[in-house]
């Protein structure tokens, strides 16, 4: 039973009438801003240790959601069992205890264990570093709204509109981090600013609690016994409607970070849109009707289906925008349904607790369970399908409608599969029939919108049919999934090459047969590492000076660079992902490495594993630690490059691969090199016959201690001296500027 306040005859005092609302709004705003700025701050701290994995943010969101659930449970218990004054004392005491964990910083012994312990390590560090301060802030939203509802304020009868103020704070906190905080403040300064905000919040909480408590002290507190029992079905609806958008949020975030960069700057965009939907839906009057939202949702998801299943969006920007649009509309639809089902104010904290539980379950499914169940990113299409069920949660369909929808969906899904059989090269000139079929499917779904269940299942089954055939270049693929992403090994369309994809990016290939179908033995590498590549130039330059030389290769991929070290005795390899190691050593895949090479491989983050090398011991260090074009930024900082330079032998070369579709990194390397007193040379190779040779263009920088060490490269064709770029700041472990890197890449494409 909930606690309710029965207002006395006297009107509320001056403080309640004029001070309580602004105090509550200010506290909610600041609390939410702190709550959602700590997420990118903390993940930015752990990235240098976790190697830039896109899964960092996915797991982080689940951990934060779990503690948020604990905070909501704490708020529910506190508001149900204590008066406002007593609850204020207890909560301020908790915040005072949490202050002992500030400023936020990683423990001094925060070293990532080798092998598969990344998730548990991350959970442990989270609990030690930020769990307690986050818990103290997490309960503020429902707690403050409950206090406001129990006061005598005129607006207390419907306190749910205050949730919009809270989410505006979340929105501002998230966007200010990548746009203002991260580009202008280092991590130490960021942590100090957060601590100051925490102190200010404690003052606002105390003031709001004392003010609200004045009104309650004049009221009669009674147990509400006449309230109708809450149906368990209603609680399940709240949980389900919170589960769906939360699961999609994590899936979309993983997709974006795996194809652009593992960085808070990009991670906050989906979450900011997600929070914006709360602002737009938790209103006294709906901004958009549920019917319109359902139609928009079906239309945008149909567009995503066609685009993904038939590879019609080669431009990553278009793909990302479609995914974000689907997330925004789906979250709007689910959250609007939650607003429609909100309970009376006495059950406010239970409502938020149920929403939080649904969020934790949805995030856990996508971030923790899906990687164990699926060898590909299957959770993305699955969560899209779940979004179509939003109106069905509110009004379950009859069996008759379900049967008709299933029959029509099977017909359309079968047509898609038949078309894919007939026209397997959907990215070539015969793709028009598939495109027409997709458009027909979308039109049919739209026409059938008045029977949403029919349309939803039609699109769902069509999606499953398309996803079943989605793989790079439509070849039959083997998939391996790890904490660091999805790796797919697939044959080219003509069957001559074996290809390795990480996400959507080609990271290795080898010719297996010639045009006549004969097996090609000892074929050289292709992609970035072919014999005329910048990598081959640099390796040959070192070999000319020293027949036997030491080399450390950071980033294994298919093991292609090992082909150049077959006659060498002192080559070592450093890889953070155990799954990549197994792929490179598997003789059924590429064969650049032998099983005996396992002893030469060190598993772990390069910033840690390279420390095992002796200073001045390496004639060549190659940095090629990409993850599906998701750059581990901590490997491109001044501190990291200083480590590499210490390990170089006299006249040694540091080779850095800076090819990237979305980030311009060469100028960052140049700025860092200037700080460290290193000299550089650069080569940007091109290839006009990729389809037949799978030779990729590569942007490679060679660094050395003295200009004379690069003379051999500079004298070769297409190499030129590296020079710093004006206004590009060096990156450090305390400062990176991804927005500027993205802008420079976009500008270079104009």
From TrEMBL:
Gene3D superfamilies: Vaccinia Virus protein VP39. The keyword Transmembrane helix applies. The keyword Transmembrane applies. Keywords: Membrane, Polyamine biosynthesis, Transmembrane, Transmembrane helix. InterPro entries: SAM-dependent_MTases_sf. One of its GO terms (biological process) is polyamine biosynthetic process. The chain crosses the membrane at residues 14-36, 56-75, 87-106, 118-139, 160-180, 192-215, 235-254, 260-280, 292-310, 316-338, 350-374, 380-399, 406-423, 435-466. NCBIfam families: MFS_SpdSyn. This is Spermidine synthase. It comes from Candidatus Raskinella chloraquaticus. The lineage of its organism: Bacteria, Pseudomonadati, Pseudomonadota, Alphaproteobacteria, Hyphomicrobiales.
């Amino acid at each position: 039973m909930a606690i309710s306040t029965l207002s006395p005859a006297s009107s509320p005092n001056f403080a309640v009438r004029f001070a309580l609302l602004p105090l509550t709004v200010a506290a909610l705003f600041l609390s939410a801003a702190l709550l959602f700025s700590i997420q990118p701050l903390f993940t930015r701290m752990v990235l240098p240790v976790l190697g830039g994995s896109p899964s960092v943010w996915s797991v982080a969101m689940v951990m934060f959601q779990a503690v948020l659930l604990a905070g909501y449970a704490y708020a529910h218990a506190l508001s149900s069992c204590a008066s406002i004054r007593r609850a204020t004392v207890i909560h301020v005491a908790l915040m005072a205890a949490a202050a002992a964990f500030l400023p936020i910083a990683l423990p001094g012994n925060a070293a990532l264990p080798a092998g598969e312990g990344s998730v548990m390590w991350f959970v442990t560090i989270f609990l030690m570093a930020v769990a307690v301060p986050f818990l103290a802030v997490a309960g503020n939203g429902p707690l403050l709204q409950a206090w406001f509802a129990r006061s005598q304020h005129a607006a207390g009868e419907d306190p749910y509109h205050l949730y919009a103020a809270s989410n505006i704070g979340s929105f501002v906190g998230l966007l200010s981090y990548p746009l203002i905080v991260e580009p202008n403040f280092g991590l130490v300064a960021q942590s100090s600013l957060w601590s100051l905000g925490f102190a200010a919040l404690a003052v606002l909480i105390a003031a709001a609690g004392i003010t609200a408590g004045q009104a309650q002290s004049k009221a009669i507190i009674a147990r509400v016994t006449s309230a109708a029992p809450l149906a368990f079905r209603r609680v399940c609806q709240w949980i389900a409607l919170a589960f769906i958008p939360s699961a999609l949020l994590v899936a979309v975030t993983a997709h974006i970070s795996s194809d652009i960069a593992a960085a808070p700057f990009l991670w906050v965009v989906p979450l900011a849109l997600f929070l914006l939907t709360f602002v737009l839906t938790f209103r006294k009057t709906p901004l958009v009707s549920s019917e319109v939202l359902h139609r928009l949702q079906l239309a945008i998801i149909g567009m995503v289906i066609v685009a993904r299943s038939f590879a019609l969006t080669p431009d990553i920007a278009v793909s990302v925008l479609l995914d974000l649009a689907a997330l925004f509309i789906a979250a709007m639809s689910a959250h609007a349904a939650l607003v429609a089902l909100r309970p009376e104010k006495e059950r406010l904290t239970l409502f938020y607790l149920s929403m939080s539980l649904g969020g934790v379950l949805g995030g856990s499914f996508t971030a923790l369970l899906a990687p164990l169940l699926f060898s590909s990113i299957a959770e993305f299409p699955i969560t899209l399908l779940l979004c179509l069920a939003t109106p069905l949660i509110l009004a379950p369909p009859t069996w008759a409608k379900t049967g008709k929808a299933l029959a029509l969906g099977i017909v359309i899904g079968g047509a898609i599969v038949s078309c894919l059989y007939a026209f397997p090269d959907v990215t070539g000139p015969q793709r028009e029939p598939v495109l027409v079929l997709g458009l027909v499917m979308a039109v049919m779904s739209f026409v059938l919108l008045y029977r949403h269940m029919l349309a939803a299942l039609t699109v769902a089954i069509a999606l499953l049919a398309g996803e079943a055939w989605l793989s790079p270049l439509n070849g039959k693929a083997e998939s391996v999934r790890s904490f660091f992403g999805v790796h797919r090994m697939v044959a080219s369309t003509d069957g001559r090459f074996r290809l390795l994809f990480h996400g959507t990016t080609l990271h290795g290939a080898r010719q297996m047969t010639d045009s006549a179908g004969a097996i090609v033995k000892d074929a050289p590498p292709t992609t970035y590492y072919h014999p005329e590549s910048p990598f081959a130039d640099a390796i040959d330059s070192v070999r000319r000076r020293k027949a036997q030389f030491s080399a450390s290769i950071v980033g294994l991929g298919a093991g292609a660079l090992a082909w150049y070290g077959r006659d060498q005795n002192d080559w070592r390899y450093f890889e953070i992902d155990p799954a990549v190691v197994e792929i490179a050593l598997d003789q059924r895949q590429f064969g650049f490495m032998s099983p005996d090479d396992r002893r030469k491989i060190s598993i772990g983050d390069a910033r840690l594993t390279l420390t095992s090398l002796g200073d001045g011991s390496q004639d060549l260090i190659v940095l090629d630690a990409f993850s599906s074009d998701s750059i581990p930024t901590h490997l491109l900082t001044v501190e990291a490059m200083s480590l590499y330079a210490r390990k170089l032998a006299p006249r040694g070369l540091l080779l850095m691969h800076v090819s990237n579709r979305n980030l311009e990194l060469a100028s960052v390397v140049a700025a860092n090199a200037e700080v460290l007193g290193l000299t550089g040379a650069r080569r940007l190779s091109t290839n006009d016959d990729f389809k037949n040779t799978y030779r990729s263009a590569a942007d490679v920088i060679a660094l050395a201690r003295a200009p004379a060490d690069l003379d051999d490269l500079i004298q070769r064709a297409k190499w030129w001296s590296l020079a710093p770029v004006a206004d590009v700041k060096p990156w450090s472990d305390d400062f990176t500027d991804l927005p500027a890197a993205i802008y420079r890449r976009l500008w270079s494409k104009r």
